[in-house]
Amino acid sequence: MESEVSFVNGTINLAGTLTIPNTSVEKFPAFVFVHGSGPNDRDENPDLSLMSPNDKEKLIQTLKSFNLEVSQFKLNVFNEMSDYLVKKGFAVLRYDKRGIGKSEGDYSTAGFKDLISDAHAAIKFLRSKPEINPSKIIVLGHSEGGIIGPVLCVEDPTIAALVICAGTSQKLDDIMLQQAKYTREMLKRLTQEQKEKLGVKDTPDPVEVIEKLIEKVKHGDEYVEVGGHKVYAKWFREHFAHDPLETIKQVKCPVLIVQGEKDFQVPFSNALALRDALEKSGNNNVRLMLFPNIDHLLKFEPGQSSQLKYISKMNREVEPLILKSIAGWTESVLVKNGSMH
Same domain, yes or no, for 122 and 264? Predict the structure, then answer.
């Protein structure tokens, strides 16, 4: 049973979807999904109206090269994950980020700490629902959500379990530089014709762009330039100050780390570092699952992953084995700690 819901964080009303299994159980264990970076809605699809004009124009041109319209650009990660987990007996809450979809607030001024606060509000809302078992809340964070998830678990030790999908052990500025270097290498491999077709003919060196952005953020600039327009630097500044590896050491609940080996945005060495940090800090309930030929979107990619592949292979589904593994691990953890419900 799927229902439109809303909950409040301070003065901001956040909207989402709560899906309950259609079975006769009094109280359900429940997942809260925490998004990756960007202006993402509850299905983890980006609101393209909030992209910079330059980035949006490049995306439109790339989509046209594959005979696709802007309205067809859907990644559908969270709704696919939700559908599967609900069939396995879990309730799922997924919500629009502040300022996105039906949620109130201003996305452009939201910082890292604001997103953490919104996720806490989502958990609080779930616990208030009579059909949800308040002691069996599981946080599932994807990408940036995999950075937020450990923070939630440290600040709220009553969270039953944590699933990190493509989360990072490195600080955001280090990851951004790695991604920029990868992009630079990918651009070098394109022919002039391919660059013109994709609208990246005159693209500046991505490494230099990111280095300048990082320098401005650390200098204390209130705004930085991203994709040709000014954005509020608060989100970057709060991220740069956060060390995911130090945070994960404080997580005491069971943790599942899901990582694709073809992820170019978050190399799988990050997953290994997260696991090692958890185990060294004394958490004995940690499981790492590395999946070959899986990219950052948790989808099958037999070749070299790239943002271009996200578009050219947009209709791929979230890997079923990953969904099965998440459901199976979570059920085993809950049963070990008493019962599934």
Answer: yes
Q: What is the CATH number of the domain that holds 8?
A: 3.40.50.1820
User: Mean pLDDT over all residues of the chain?
Assistant: 92
Are the C-beta atoms of 37 and 148 separated by less than 8 Å? no
If asked whether residues 121 and 186 sit together in one domain, one would say: no
Q: What is the pTM of this model?
A: 0.94
Query: What are the tens digits of pLDDT across the range 3-46?
Result: 999 999 999 999 999 999 998 888 999 999 999 999 999 999 99
pLDDT in tens, 311-334: 888 889 999 999 999 999 999 999
226 and 258, same structural domain? no
Residue 80 shares a structural domain with residue 145: yes
- For the CA atoms of 112, 116, 122, 128, the dihedral, rounded to the nearest 10 degrees, stands at -150
